[in-house]
Amino acid sequence: MFKRKSMPFFIVLLSFAIILGGCGLLKGGNQEIDPPQSESIIEDESALEESGVETEDKDVSDSKETADQSVMTELYLIDKNGYVVPQTIALPSQQGVAKQALEHLVADGPVTDLLPNGFRAVLPAGTQVDVDIKDGKATVDFSKEFANYNSEDELKILQAVTWTLTQFDSVETVKLQMNGHELKEMPVNKTPISENLTRANGINIDTSSTVDITNSTAMTLYYLGGDDSNYYYVPVTKRVDVKGNDMVSAVVKELVKGPGSSSKLLTEFMPDVALLTEPKIDKKEAKISLNFNENIYGSFDENIVSQSLIDVLVLSLTEQKGIESVEVLVNGKASLVTEDGKELSAPVNRPEKVNRSSL
Fold first, then answer.
1. Measured between alpha carbons, how far is 357 from 115 in angstroms, rounded to an integer?
2. pTM (2 d.p.)
3. Sheet containing strand 348-349, strands side by side
4. 349 neighbors 32 (Cβ within 8 angstroms)
5. Of 12, 127, 151, 261, which is most buried by a Cβ count within 10 Å?
6. What's the half-sphere exposure (Cβ side, CA atoms, 13 Å) at 97?
7. How far apart are CA 10 and CA 155, in angstroms?
């Protein structure tokens, strides 16, 4: 499904400050993408995510500032259409950020007053959680209330817990327990659980395409969810027939193809968008260069491209191993600007956090 330019989305989208410090912020010479509904708060989370704790401020005079600090954390919540969607929300700075993140996935818990419109928490009310992180594995122990979920939420719970925890650098895999006992299957619909859950298990899995599983590859793409007043980015995992192991071209092809017609998701790509040359990969800089035809402009004037099109392109491509930034060319030239006049003269980085809440 295509999102037409006559919608007021762009005016709304671009009035907010953007992921990781907003429009025009440069990092290492690269521009950063501008997802919707954002804040201009920039947090240095590298040390925090590595250890799972927040360090204390040594200067007593800064105690008030320390108390006011917050940690921008991705919470994977359920939107009104049933998709598991990251929403980056400012949580109080405290020890045990991984546990805190999961506690904010519990219905009727501390996330209640922070939920964006149309979203709900994924874990059953009253669920208590404990998290132990060791050697890259987060072992999560749920209380008995964990089993009190609706059957249709079973896969969404697995995805939300896994993707919420693996945002932290110290977590590579996730293991689930309930009342101290390992869960080998989910309590309600008995979905088997791997001992090592990872993002490779997918999210919002799209099974609408009929492809040969043995000759296809799973990839996670991003589309637009929400409505005119509030668009956000939704990750979707598909199985795709990749020709010649060219994952980059396959990602672009799928974005142009768009989401399923019944998905309630949108795309900025028109069906006549195409690459003019093969993607160029700079392995040293982890950069990919793409040369599109002029149809990438859509209904905009020459050299103007949709910001959200750039965003979903960068989010989708940087899901691929070895790609950290994307350079977009048209007819071999890099003289592009977004609809609000922002120049795209440098490669665009993936943001650390997606869909920053404006709350």
1. 9
2. 0.81
3. 26-27, 30-32, 348-349, 325-330, 287-292, 280-282
4. yes
5. 127
6. 30
7. 33
